């Protein structure tokens, strides 16, 4: 069931902020997913709706990078196919999991992703020697795609890190390539969750509009003022929203932990 109009507007505001941060530092899903869950949307519907809204921003980024010549579409097709197939598998596995377990497991994944973004090293802009070949790139794209289909936040950063550390790309080309792979995994995960009827279309499309607008503002702000504040803001907002989820005594993880002290 779609949230009421007031809650949808609030989720649009969250998506706008997440879009700004995602354009600078990535990880917008660390804000939108806990916001959707905090709004009372069941876990699998929250993940499916987030997949819908994030696909628009990713598609826009792919178009922009392609126009500027940063994406080699011919060389990227096989890795993109690997990401697509992996995400389809991950999304299918998601539909098989008990909703109660998923509600308790998602905060753990969110906290793990927050630590990743907090501790992840900065990367350079220069291309380097690739450590692995094209076949391994397809395999790595499949694995990360599987994670994206199942959960999602941090996927773009994982793709970028792999392209820089394992396949020798400079930062700009790695970010551009990561957006293409992320779009492929987004579309596959979204397709599987659409078939299952898990997407809240009105909420997802409304958040998509806000996210794209936020992404434009974030890109401009980065060029104008720099990107130093984005990562700390991402961590603070994500921690606050995840804390709200865990403050609910009905959350399975909270209930389990409280039971240890009963």
UniProtKB/TrEMBL annotation:
It is found in: Cell membrane. It is a multi-pass membrane protein. The chain crosses the membrane at residues 6-37, 77-95, 101-120, 132-150, 156-175, 187-209, 229-247. Keywords: Cell membrane, Membrane, Transmembrane, Transmembrane helix, Transport. Belongs to the 4-toluene sulfonate uptake permease (TSUP) (TC 2.A.102) family. This is Probable membrane transporter protein. It comes from Sphingomonas cynarae.
């Amino acid at each position: 069931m779609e949230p009421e109009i007031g809650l949808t507007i609030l989720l649009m505001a969250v998506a706008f902020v997440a879009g700004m941060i995602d354009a600078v530092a990535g990880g917008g899903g660390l804000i939108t997913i806990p916001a959707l869950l905090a709004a009372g949307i069941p876990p699998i519907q929250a993940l499916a709706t987030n997949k819908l809204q994030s696909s628009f921003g990713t598609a826009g980024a792919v178009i922009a990078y392609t126009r500027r010549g940063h994406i080699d579409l011919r060389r990227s097709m096989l890795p993109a196919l690997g990401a697509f197939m992996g995400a389809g598998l991950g999304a299918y596995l998601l539909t098989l999991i008990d909703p109660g377990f998923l509600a308790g497991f998602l905060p753990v994944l969110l906290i793990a992703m927050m630590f990743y973004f907090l501790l992840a090293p900065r990367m350079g802009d220069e291309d380097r020697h690739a450590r692995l070949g094209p076949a391994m790139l397809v395999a790595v794209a499949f694995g990360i795609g599987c994670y994206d289909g199942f959960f999602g936040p941090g996927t773009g950063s994982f793709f970028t890190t792999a392209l820089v550390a394992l396949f020798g790309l400079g930062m700009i080309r790695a970010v551009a390539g990561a957006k293409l792979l992320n779009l492929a995994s987004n579309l596959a995960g979204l397709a599987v969750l659409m078939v299952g009827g898990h997407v809240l279309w009105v909420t997802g499309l409304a958040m998509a509009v806000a996210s794209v607008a936020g992404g434009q503002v974030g890109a401009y702000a980065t060029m104008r003022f720099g990107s130093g504040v984005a990562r700390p803001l991402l961590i603070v907002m994500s921690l606050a929203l995840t804390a709200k989820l865990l403050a609910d005594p009905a959350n399975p993880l909270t209930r389990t932990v409280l039971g240890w002290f009963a």
